[in-house]
Specification:
It is an enzyme of class 2 (transferase). GO terms for molecular function: 1,4-alpha-glucan branching enzyme activity; cation binding; hydrolase activity, hydrolyzing O-glycosyl compounds. The structure is a single chain. It contains 16 helices and 34 strands. The protein is α+β, with helices and mostly antiparallel strands and 725 residues long. Helix 5 runs parallel beside helix 6. The mean pLDDT is 96.
Length: 725
């Protein structure tokens, strides 16, 4: 018979080791006893699992606690509990306390030592079967908790029903709950080290969650491994044309009910649309589960769960396939820098600062009111690296765009003097975060074809250099300096651009120091900045012409491309995350013309190897004219290293220039105009150089320091591309 102290602790939900008391146990005299804690039960009987025969009725010693000595049995055996519930109903159940530990010592040791980079195979909720008993194995990391129970729709959210077993070597709590099933809601009920009951916690490793404002985790199957299609490896290489269409899934188009679109609705339209415009990749802003719509997903709490806003997770699998079927790569925004303070999340998960740094000078983001992961903690590193691999390996996405890398790299990021803690060397770099990013990128790089892209806004060296060369190991880095400089230039009235000429050329000084991606992202069309069209100066005609010229400049410039949704058709107003894009603008030929231009720029970029093959190498670029500030004209040549060339010319004033002499490289006898952003087809004035088969003959007339030239008509506020004939 169980002693009163143990019984009191079990009934209070405070027992340190419920597996040592509940279930089938022998006493000091070798007699078997069976004990069950089943609040709400009226009667409980012990059955032989094989025959189904009743062995003994359990006595109810106190409300909800049942025990009995087992007659005529000296050894453990397989049994069931027949329960009559006080509120009506009955059932036969396997006893969760009849099962041995679920996780192996070796996998727990690997987790504790930082060697398990797929912790989602162990932790979280897993559908498993033991013999003829199906159920769910739950496991969570909470090393400083006094007691952890899994609660949910399968046990009336009663923390006394399923207190878990602590595996001391790893601080992991686990239990197998028979008869729990896919779709069941659950959370973890945690008693901290001081004996206080914490708010219920969602599962950090949950693969599915309730739609906000509800916060429970949902039992979901583990996705099967999904390797990248073979052709994606080549498409993600540095020498390939990469043009990314950035999308906020909730506001690209609203769903049929006027709310969030489902994954299937998106799959029916978005991949085909992006592919038709010639983009090579779609990049989704964060789709991991997050509590607040207004964060656009950047304050995520579900690092392993596709957001419920778009329907069940299996719909996301169909969306990934739809992208690949259209020949598109899929990148996901991934946020390892910080997480929100919501009480159901990671904050003080087991009553201590477990996932976050303990000191607010390290662990709290002043700008975003969020918490910073403890990048030096073994289990947190596994959690984050595991998440990166999970999306790539289990969902088959091409890669990750890692958000806010600068905030991870520096301990003094956005902190005044005295409000940050130096590293162990006395410096400002976050050595733990640097190490984490390198390790993450090494593991991502082991997946054939997978890539990572850094949003990093500082001059930190080697962001896209290999880790073996001392770099961070990203495949690409957003060129934030190029974006800021060129947009400031474009905002200037053309009459003043002569004084800001270097803003368009400065980026070429460092353009090949990293594998750069040129980003016109969502950040450029929010917080009062207006749309790209609205940021252009001049009257209505000039705004459109400026934007078309700028897109031409961008597509002709070295670096991979990224454009945020809506900007491909010159959205007039600032982006609003709560509304769908204003697709009706495409009825206006000026907006439709910009869309046609983006399609043709992508087509030219992909077809002309000189525009992409050496995007990240200095051998792929040479200036023809970089100093003509007086006329705000820029001209350069792009090369692919095999003899192929493209010439790009930009006129950033509204003054047309007929008979303009343009110096050209040797080795070509004639050039033809391949694209002109001033074409009437795009909404321009249609000044240009024709499409005659003979093209523009090269003349032995010096220009721009070259011995050969061609004579062109240079339209107002336009970018032109010329290719050899």
């Amino acid at each position: 018979m169980l002693n009163d102290a143990d019984l009191d602790a079990l009934l209070a939900g405070r027992h340190a080791d419920p597996f040592s008391r509940l279930g089938l146990h022998a006493d000091d005299d070798g007699r078997l006893w069976v004990r069950a804690l089943l609040p709400g039960a009226a009667e409980v009987a012990l059955l032989d699992a094989g025959s189904g025969k009743r062995i003994v009725e359990l006595g109810q010693r106190r409300a909800g606690f049942f025990e009995a000595q087992v007659p005529r049995r000296k050894h453990r055996f397989d049994y069931r509990l027949a329960v009559n519930w006080a509120g009506g109903g009955e059932g036969v159940y396997a006893d969760p306390y009849a099962f041995y530990p679920q996780l192996g010592d070796e996998e727990l040791q690997a987790f504790a030592e930082g060697r398990n980079f797929r912790p989602w195979l162990s932790l979280g909720a897993h559908l498993v079967t033991h013999g003829d008993v199906s159920g769910v194995r739950f496991a969570t990391w909470a090393p400083n908790a006094r007691r952890v129970s899994v609660v949910g729709s399968f046990n009336n959210w009663d923390g006394r029903r399923h207190p878990m077993r602590l595996r001391h070597q790893a601080g992991v709590w686990e239990i197998f709950v028979p008869h729990a099933a896919e779709g069941d809601l659950y959370k973890f009920e945690i008693v901290n080290g001081n004996g206080a009951l914490l708010p219920l916690k969602a599962d950090p490793y949950a693969r599915r969650a309730q739609l906000r404002p509800e916060t429970a985790s949902i039992v979901a199957p583990l996705p099967e491994p999904t390797p990248l299609p073979r052709q994606r490896e080549r498409a993600n290489r540095r020498e390939s044309a990469i043009s990314v269409y950035e999308v906020h899934a909730a506001s690209w188009r609203r769903g049929v009910a006027g709310d969030f679109p489902t994954w299937d609705e998106l799959a029916e339209q978005l991949p085909a649309y992006a592919a038709d415009l010639g983009f090579t990749h779609v990049q989704l802003m964060p789709i991991s589960e997050h509590p607040f719509d207004g964060s656009w997903g950047y304050q995520t709490l579900g690092m392993y769960a596709p957001s419920a806003r778009f329907g069940p997770p299996e719909g996301f699998a169909r969306f990934v396939k739809a992208c690949h079927d259209q020949g598109l790569g899929l990148l996901l925004d991934w946020v390892p820098a910080h997480f929100p303070v919501d009480t159901h999340g990671l904050a003080e998960f087991d009553g201590t600062r477990l996932y976050e740094y303990a000191d607010p000078k390290e662990g709290f983001h002043r700008d975003w009111n969020t918490l910073i992961y403890n990048f030096g903690r073994t289990e947190v590193r596994e959690f984050l690296i595991g998440s990166a691999l999970y999306w790539i390996e289990r969902w088959g996405v091409d890669g990750l765009r890692v958000d806010a890398v600068a905030s991870m790299l520096y301990r003094d990021y956005s902190r005044p003097e005295g409000q940050w803690i130096p590293n162990i060397r006395g410096g400002r770099e976050n050595l733990e975060a640097i190490s984490l990013l390198r390790e993450m990128n090494e593991h991502v790089g082991e997946v054939e074809g997978a890539i990572s892209v850094a949003e990093e806004s500082t001059s930190f060296p080697g962001v896209s250099a290999p880790t073996y060369a001392g770099g961070l190991g990203f495949h690409y880095k957003w060129n934030m300096g190029w974006m800021n400089d060129t947009l400031r230039y474009m905002a200037e009235d053309p009459i003043n651009r002569r004084w800001h000429h270097d803003k368009m050329t400065f980026g070429l000084i460092y353009a090949f120091s990293e594998n750069f991606m040129l980003p016109i992202s969502h950040d450029e069309v929010v917080h009062g900045k207006g749309s790209m069209l609205a940021r252009m100066p001049g009257d209505d005609w000039q705004k459109f012409a400026n934007l078309r010229a700028y897109y031409g400049f961008m597509w002709g410039h070295p670096g991979k491309k990224l454009l945020f949704m809506g900007q491909e058709f010159a959205q007039a107003q600032e982006w609003n995350h709560a509304e769908g894009l204003p697709w009706g603008l495409l009825e206006d030929d000026r907006h439709a013309g910009v869309q046609r231009l983006v399609r043709d720029l992508n087509k030219l970029y992909r077809e002309q190897s000189a525009l992409h093959r050496l995007d990240c190498e200095s051998g792929g670029f040479e200036w023809i004219s970089s100093h003509d500030a007086e006329h705000s004209i820029y001209a350069w040549a792009r090369r692919d290293g095999t003899g192929r060339m493209v010439i790009v010319v930009c006129n950033m004033t509204p003054v047309p220039r007929e008979g303009y002499s343009l110096g050209v490289p040797d080795g070509v006898t004639a050039w033809r105009e391949a694209l002109n952003t001033d074409s009437a087809y795009y909404g321009g004035s249609n000044m240009g150089n024709g499409v005659a088969a003979a093209g523009l003959p090269v003349q032995a007339q010096p220009a721009h320091g070259r011995r050969l030239s061609i004579t062109i008509n240079l339209p107002p506020l336009a970018t032109l591309f010329f290719v050899p004939i």
